[in-house]
Amino acid sequence: MSISYKTAHELARLIRTMELSPVEVMRKTLERIEAVNPLINAFVAMRAEEAITEAKELEARIGRGMEPGPLAGVPVGVKDLEDVEGMVTSFGSIPYKDHVAVQDSVQVARLRRAGAIVVGKTNTPEFGFTGFTKNRLYGVTRNPWNRERTPGGSSGGSAAAVAAGMVPIATGSDAGGSIRIPACYSGCFGLKPTFGRIPLGPLARLYMTRTWTLGPLTMTVEDAALYLDCTAGTHPADPDSLPRPSLSYCDALKARPRGLKIGFSPDLGYARVQKDVMSLVEKAAASFDAMGHPVEIWKGALPDVSQAWSDLMNWELYGQLHHDLERIRPELGRTLVESLDSVKALSIADRLRIQEVRTALNRVLWEVFDQFDLLLTPTMPTEAFAAKGPPPEEVDGHPIPLLGAAAFTYPFNLSGHPAATVRVGLTESGLPAGLQIVGPRHRDDRVLQAAHLYEEAFPWNDHWPDLHMDVARG
Does the structure show a pLDDT above 70 at 470? Predict the structure, then answer.
C-alpha cells in the first residue's frame, strides 16, 4: 500500500486498527524522503534510526492493547527553528550548525505525546528572515510543483515536504506569513492560529513583540484541526499561551455553521494582485455565497503597518542574537546583519509610534469583525517566484513596495487574528494560488470550519505534484 499523500487522520486510523504497521509506515516514509528529497531539499537532517526504533516501540504498545494516541505513528517534519531533543537546531545559520537541542519544544513534545514520530528537520531561511527558503548552510529548497520556483518561506521546507508527499504533517511558525506564504505557494493547507494558541518555548528569552505563532502545514483541514487538538493549551513556558477551548477542533468541523456573514477584500486597500491569481481568488470567495454564506465586498483599508512590522521583527531578532552578534557577525547573511544593525537607531519615540500603528490596526479590525464573521483576502499577491529569489518587485508590470510581495499576511501577525490559507486552483503557469480566511481573535474554530466547507466543495487533496518521472530521472 502506498502511503504517499495519505492524510494524518487516515494513517493514524489504519495504524490504530493494525491495518498498517507503524514500522512499515516509517520505512516507506524514509524511502520516499530518500527518493524525493534530493530534488526538493526539504529535509536538512534526519533521525531515521530513532524513528524506526520509536515505530517498533509503538507497534509493541498497540500489540499489548495500549492506546497509541490520536497521531499514532504519523511521521512529522519539524521546522529547523524549533527544538527536537538530540538534534541540531541550526536556525538555517552557519554559526549554529552544531547547536544541539537538550529538550523538545512544547509543541514537539505534545505532538510526540500524541503518538507522532519526528523523522527530521525541515529547511528554513536564516532565522526565518525571508519569504523564500534559502540559506548558506543547507542551500535552496524548491517547490514540488515547479523546481525552478520557491515553496515560500520561512516554513518552506515543511510546506515542500508535505506537498511532495514525504510527510502528511510538518510544523511551522509564522511571524509575518511564514506558514501561510509557503502553504499558499506549495498548495497545502496552512493555519496561523490566534496568538498564544500553541505555546512557544521553552525559550532563553520570552518574545517581546507578540507576533510569533506556531502552527501546522498539512494536506487537509481535518489534519490541521487534529494537530491543534494535540498542541493547543496553556503551558508554564509561555505566559501568553491560551487555554484549550471546551469543544475540540475536530468536533468543531462537524458543527456546520449557517448563514455566516463574510467580508471579502481583494486588496486590503493597498495591495496589487497578479491577474490570474485574483481571478481564482474572486471565484473562491464568491463560492461561499452559493454555500449559503452571504459575501460582501469590504471597501475599507487597513493602515500601513509595514514599517512598524519590520521594526518589530528586527527588534525581536536582535533580542535573540545580541549576546552573540559581534562574535558571529562575519558568518551571518549581509541583509540580516543590516537589519539587526538598524535596531540600534530605534528610539522610545519609535516604539511609541509602533504601538500607535498597532492601535489603529486594532480599531479597524474591531470594526471589520463587528460587521463580518470572517474576512477573505488573497493569501499571496503572486504565484511562487524563483527558488533563489528575490521576491517580485512588480505585479503585472506595476511596481510594488518591498513588503508588497507578502501584502496580505503580516498585518494579521500584528493584530493576532487567526488566519488560514486554502488552495483555490492553479495559475496559468500551473502553480497554486490561495484564499486567506481570517477570523476574529480566538475563533480558530470558525476559520477551520470555513476552510473545511470550502475544501468539501472544492477538494484539493486528490491533486498533488507528479514527482514520479523526476524521481525516475534521478
Answer: no
